[in-house]
Design goal:
CATH topology: Metallo-beta-lactamase, Chain A
Order of helices and strands: EEEHEHHEHEEEEEHEHHHEHEEH
Number of strands: 14
Radius of gyration: 17 Å
Largest sheet: 7 strands, mixed
Number of helices: 10
Distance between the termini: 29 Å
CATH architecture: 4-Layer Sandwich
Strand order of the largest sheet: 6-5-4-3-2-1-14
CATH class: Alpha Beta
Strand content: 15-25%
Helix content: 25-40%
CATH superfamily: Ribonuclease Z/Hydroxyacylglutathione hydrolase-like
Bound molecules: zinc ion
Length: 276
């Protein structure tokens, strides 16, 4: 049993709840404890059910709530040694209980075997994560904030059941949009964020018969639309021969419906989700 719930994703906060056979973890805690709590409640869950938080990198939209949530609910935080060091220099500070992810090989967290892979991004040590549920063997990959796809990453993301993938911007909208030139260059540069086109190419390389679902994340509200991101990645997946109808775009404002390892979306009362 593996289930993925994007509680929110974008430049104002990211948190992805992953439930496995033996425990539940959050990937990133970019919301404060209050927002995290209300987003969890909106999908029928409670902070006490979370056993640990894994951090992809120290940027505020991924780690701002980690220290406060760790203090409040006792969540241990896992990240690479460089990310923990960088986090100690941020305003939010280090969580109370921290653990370094093993530099190589697997780290076992709440029933998951966790692998991490370096991705280029303007952070100390940004990582893509792959979590394998110890009991079922189901695998989920989480790729947030990647400037480009490094060599070896598509192979590391092979044999996934579910993929959470950044699809940040439409290149044309970004180029013609309101952002200052330097910021445009930062976003589209090799240490920024993945475009829809880059996400489509990576998704296509991850596609295989048993990939059950793809959830797009970190969509820009200024430089993208869910329709464009979905169309682009759907096209890439179709070209790779992936025919499932199991592609979704998560949003900043509200949690996405939970997605199971079978590729099914679990409905959540929309009245609850529209609170955000
Ligand atoms: Zn981010
Ligand atoms: Zn970042």
């Amino acid at each position: 049993m593996l289930r993925v719930t994007v509680l929110g994703s974008g430049s104002r906060g990211n948190a992805v709840l992953i439930d496995g056979s033996e425990g539940s973890v959050l990937v990133d805690a970019g919301f404060g404890p209050r927002a995290l709590c209300s987003r969890l409640l909106a999908v029928g869950r409670h902070p006490e059910e979370i056993h640990a938080v894994l951090l992809t990198h120290e940027h505020i939209d991924h780690a701002a709530g980690a220290a406060a949530a760790s203090a409040r609910w006792g969540w241990p935080a896992y990240a690479t040694a460089d990310t923990l060091r960088a986090l100690g220099d941020t305003d939010s500070g280090l969580p109370v209980h921290t653990h370094s992810l093993a530099a190589t090989g697997l780290t076992h967290v709440s029933g998951f075997a966790v692998e991490h892979h370096a991705v280029p991004h303007d952070a100390a040590d940004c990582r893509a994560l792959v979590l394998t549920d110890g009991r079922s063997g189901a695998r989920v990959g989480v790729v947030l904030d990647a400037g480009r796809v490094p060599e070896g990453l598509p192979e590391a993301l092979s044999r996934l059941d579910l993929l959470v993938l950044e699809s940040n911007h439409d290149r044309e909208i970004l180029a013609n949009g309101p952002y200052p030139r330097l910021l445009k260059r930062r976003i589209s540069g090799g240490s920024g964020h993945l475009s829809n086109e880059a996400a489509a190419a990576l998704a296509a390389r991850c596609a295989h018969r048993d990939l059950r679902g793809v959830i797009l994340a970190h969509l820009s509200e200024t430089n993208n639309t869910p329709e464009l991101a979905l169309a682009s990645v759907r096209d890439g997946l179709r070209r790779a021969g992936w025919r499932r109808d199991a592609l979704w775009a998560s949003a900043q404002r509200q949690p996405h419906a939970p997605i199971t390892a079978t590729g099914a979306a679990t409905p959540v009362a929309t009245s609850q989700l529209s609170l955000f």
